[in-house]
Amino acid sequence: MRPAVVVAYLLVVFFFNQAHAQPSVFERCAACHSGTEATKDVAPNLAGVFGRKAGSREDFRYSRALSRSGITWDERSLDAFLKAPDQFIAGTRMPFEGLASEAERAAIIQYLKTLK
Ligand code: HEC
Fold first, then answer.
1. What is the percent of the chain where pLDDT is above 70?
2. Rounded to two decimals, what is the model's pTM?
3. How far apart are alpha carbons 58 and 21 in whole angstroms?
4. Residues in Cβ contact with 66 at an 8 Å cutoff, skipping those fewer than 6 apart
């Protein structure tokens, strides 16, 4: 292989891994949420959450507040929810104080998009 081809290949692999890398701040979510394995009992599985209607998994009993919110999870709604869950959806049962850092929220939303 020509060196340029090798370099191009390595760059593709590098950026692909970056895009799918779990940001360390997701560890705080992973205490309750799974994104890949079977659902944990305490919180809904986040696989495929981006683009999904809020509170729509069959295998989790959501609060009425969340399941009747009429929200679809996109960049804006996730950002608002993760910043201050119970301000965005009054009555949600997600016991999480929120992420003040915009950069951390953005990193998590990018990561959620990769969970299929
Ligand atoms: C202490 C446990 C806990 C932590 C920590 C937590 N969550 Fe949750 N999360 C929940 C519960 C419980 C619900 C369901 C809330 C409801 O029914 O009102 C939920 C709901 C959600 C939903 C809506 C899912 C759906 O199917 O509509 C998203 C998105 C979400 N959490 C993302 C996150 C992210 C991202 C983090 C980390 C920044 C996080 N959560 C941290 C417990 C937690």
1. 84
2. 0.88
3. 28
4. 54, 55, 89, 91, 92, 93, 94
What are the distances in angstroms from CA 50 to CA 9, 28, 54, 72?
29, 19, 9, 8
The CATH class for the domain spanning 22-114 reads mainly alpha
* 20, containing H or E segment: helix 3-20
Compute the average pLDDT of residues 4-24.
68
Residue 87 CB neighbours (<10 A): 11
Domain ranges of the chain: 22-114
Burial class (CB in 10 A: 0-12, 13-18, 19+), 29: buried
* CA proximity to 65, closest of 79, 73, 55: 55
Confidence of residue 3 (pLDDT cuts 50, 70, 90): confident
Share of the chain above pLDDT 90, in %: 73
- Evaluate: CB of 63 within 6 angstroms of ligand 1: yes
Residue nearest to atom 36 of ligand 1 (CA): 29
Q: Whose CA is nearest to atom 14 of ligand 1?
A: 94
